[in-house]
Amino acid sequence: MLVTLIKGDGIGPEVAEAMKKVLKKAGSKVVFEEVNAGETVFKQEGTYIPDYVYKSIEKNKIAIKGPITTPIGHGFRSINVELRKKYDLYANIRPIKAPGPLDLKYDNVDFTIFRENTEDLYAGIEEKISDDEYHSIKIITRKKSERIIKAAFEYAINNKRKKVSVVTKANIMKLTDGLFLECARKISKDYPQIEFEEILVDNCAMQMVKNPSQFDVLVTENLYGDILSDLGAGLVGGLGLMPGVNKGDNISIYESIHGSAPDIANKDLANPTAMILTACLMLDDIGEIEISQKIRKAIYKSLSFKENYTRDLGGENSTSNFTEKIIENLGA
Ligand code: NAI
Predict the structure, then answer these.
(1) Among candidates 242, 233, 327, which has minimal Cα distance to 277?
(2) Which of 86, 247, 258, 308 has minimal CB crowding within 10 Å?
(3) Is the dihedral of CA 67, 72, 75, 80 positive or negative?
């Protein structure tokens, strides 16, 4: 199967190489069509997303990408947001679960965040009223709210989850968040077998820190979802471990939660786990489930020894060495 690979900027190429090696050694049939987008490409070609990148994504329908540095002051608002909008990748799905026996405050965290990916304050509609006043418009529509909420309930059913929590601030944003909540209340009635919970975002953040195992599937708007998923990542070992995917009806772009981490780029220090687990989500979806399970087990085993830890986990191991450990453990 042909999959578009965008290595991206910063630590992107390092973690993408690690991911490619692990998939190959694990016996995956995926063949990568490599194209690139982002800052590095802009410097060489004068464009952030060359046409051949769009063509490759549209042909293959499945892409996996490393992080892309967001240009400041010129070009797109964000290349990531541009791709999500162009292909209407409305569901940003982020499973929050520790991939190994890490020394964490909680060892029973296992929830998945469904974040609406195309509207809210990310619609990018801002205006200057005066030098001292700026406005940003929050857009919430019935159609886009309903489809992400449905996707969350369908996921709950298909993955034997018990509860869906809708996260809003509907007590204050009575119209926008009120609409999102109204859609969730209505759709929840079609899924009587799934427990439905309403929770305000501030309380949700506090509950997530105090008692995260109460959560199962969460569905929320774009900005709350972004913040809560970083919070969730912090609960289970940090950004270097967390996978994700942006899904639309026809195209999926798999990408980890983390950014291009310019502070550690090109130093062989990045944790490749997030990118490798992101590829595992893709393997699950294309039917290479045995391969993804083998890789997850190898990651678990590799994270069982502190001497294997990369710097983000408090260790001193390099990206390349940790990748070799995972490969060694594929047969374990
Ligand atoms: P970041 O996620 O790049 O870094 C935050 C912190 O986490 C840094 O200390 C970094 O060293 C660490 N970190 C992140 N990933 C790691 C990994 N795999 N292993 C070890 N440590 C890791 O977030 P930041 O600094 O806010 O953003 C940097 C750039 O990335 C910005 O231009 C931002 O817009 C972009 N970005 C791109 C994303 C994407 O392409 N999907 C997502 C988030 C940010």
Answers:
(1) 242
(2) 86
(3) positive
- DSSP for residue 167: E
Structure confidence by residue, pLDDT tens digits, 101-121: 999 999 899 999 999 999 999
- What is the per-residue pLDDT for 130? 98
- Cα distance between residue 216 and residue 239, in whole Å: 20
Q: Which residues of 44-77 are buried (b: 16+ CB within 10 A; e: fewer)?
A: eeeebbbeebbebbeebebbbbbbbbbeeeeebe
> Which atom in ligand 1 lies closest to the alpha carbon of residue 72?
32
- Alpha carbons within 13 angstroms on the beta-carbon side of residue 65 total 29
Measuring CA to CA, which residue among 204, 200, 230 is closest to residue 216?
204
d(CA 219, CA 93): 9
What's the pTM value of the predicted model, to 2 decimals? 0.95
- What local confidence, expressed as pLDDT, does residue 331 receive? 85
Kindly report the backbone phi and psi dihedral angles of residue 299, in degrees, each rounded to the nearest multiple of 5, phi listed first: -65, -45
Q: Give the phi and the psi of residue 65 in degrees, each rounded to 5.
A: -130, 145
Spell out, as residue ranges, where the chain has pLDDT lower than 70: 73-77, 332
Q: Which residues have any ligand 1 atom within 6 Å of their CB? A: 11, 15, 67-70, 80, 239-240, 255, 258-264, 270-271, 274, 312
d(CA 104, CA 153): 29
Write out pLDDT tens, residues 215-231.
Answer: 999 999 999 999 999 99
What confidence score (pLDDT) does residue 55 get? 97
Is 65:6 a contact under the CB 8 Å cutoff? Answer: yes
Residue nearest atom 25 of ligand 1, based on CA coordinates: 261
CA distance 114 to 226: 10
